[in-house]
Write a structure and sequence with these properties.
This protein has 245 residues and is α/β, with parallel strands linked by helices. The chain has two domains: 149 residues, HAD superfamily/HAD-like (Rossmann fold, 3-Layer(aba) Sandwich); 85 residues. Strands 3-2-1-4-5-6 form a six-stranded parallel sheet, sandwiched between helices. The chain starts with a strand and ends with a helix. The model has no long low-confidence stretch (mean pLDDT 94).
Length: 245
């Protein structure tokens, strides 16, 4: 029986994955305006969605040959590597978007937020497991008025290993006091799905333009549990919960 529902944040409850992709793309163009386009970087972001900030940055620095340009910013940011400098350039763009409440409200996913609220009303334990850092998580939850919807929130700050390692999902289950086998995770990325499965949990993946191809081609889940039409999410969740009752 499902006793707890655990949600990812970026790409699942709010389209912050899209905003992150834009910020990485804008930062890359800022570093190499003569050689990089936003479209190319956003396309490449599909391959790293759901990974940690450092993994994303290192991959994109290598793929788009940003190291030399980023190295020139290292002293200004007080960092030791080009990928760290790239992150700082990118964060300026991302935090500017997060500072606008209307941007966040326009980019929330109503289907997932409604499922979250329904789970809460049904007295299901509800958790959040996100690879975003605490400050950004608090900002998003504040703007979307979701703080009181969670029994426990875990961010990248709370774990040593990021997704696809199962550490964060095991942490949330432990804090909720629910066995992993009785948890249902709502995710959007292959790395998040892998983390939840490795933790021994049930998973429904809601695809996005950044993750749809990888979710279907990766064969991580039965196709019944991959939702391409967000309107179908409540029905799919109900079907999975009924199957596990």
């Amino acid at each position: 029986m499902i006793q707890a529902m655990i949600f990812d944040l970026d790409g699942t409850l709010v389209q912050t994955e899209r905003l992150k992709a834009i910020s990485y793309a804008q930062a890359a163009v800022e570093l190499r305006p003569d050689a990089v386009t936003e479209t190319d970087v956003m396309t490449a972001f599909r391959d790293v969605v759901g990974l940690s900030r450092s993994e994303v940055a290192q991959t994109l620095v290598e793929r788009f040959d940003l190291a030399s340009a980023a190295a020139k910013r290292m002293a200004a940011f007080g960092v030791d590597t080009p990928w760290q400098a790239y992150i700082h350039v990118r964060l300026r763009h991302y935090e500017a978007m997060l500072a606008d409440p209307d941007v966040l409200r326009r980019n929330q996913w109503p289907h997932a937020v409604n499922l979250l609220r329904a789970a809460r009303l049904a007295r299901c334990q509800v958790g959040l497991a996100t690879m975003s850092y605490c400050g950004q998580v608090q900002r998003v939850l504040d703007v979307l008025n979701l703080h009181d919807q969670f029994d426990f929130v875990a961010s990248r700050d709370d774990v040593e290993h990021g997704k696809p390692d199962p550490e964060i999902y095991r942490l949330v289950a432990r804090e909720l006091g629910v066995p992993p086998t009785e948890c249902l995770v709502i995710e959007d990325s292959p790395s998040g799905v892998k983390a939840a499965l490795a933790a021994g949990m049930h998973v429904i993946a809601v695809s996005t333009p950044f993750t749809d191809e990888a979710l279907h081609n990766g064969r991580l889940l039965d196709e019944r549990w991959i939702v391409d039409d967000p309107v179908q999410l409540p029905a799919v969740a109900q079907a999975l919960m009924a199957a596990e009752a």
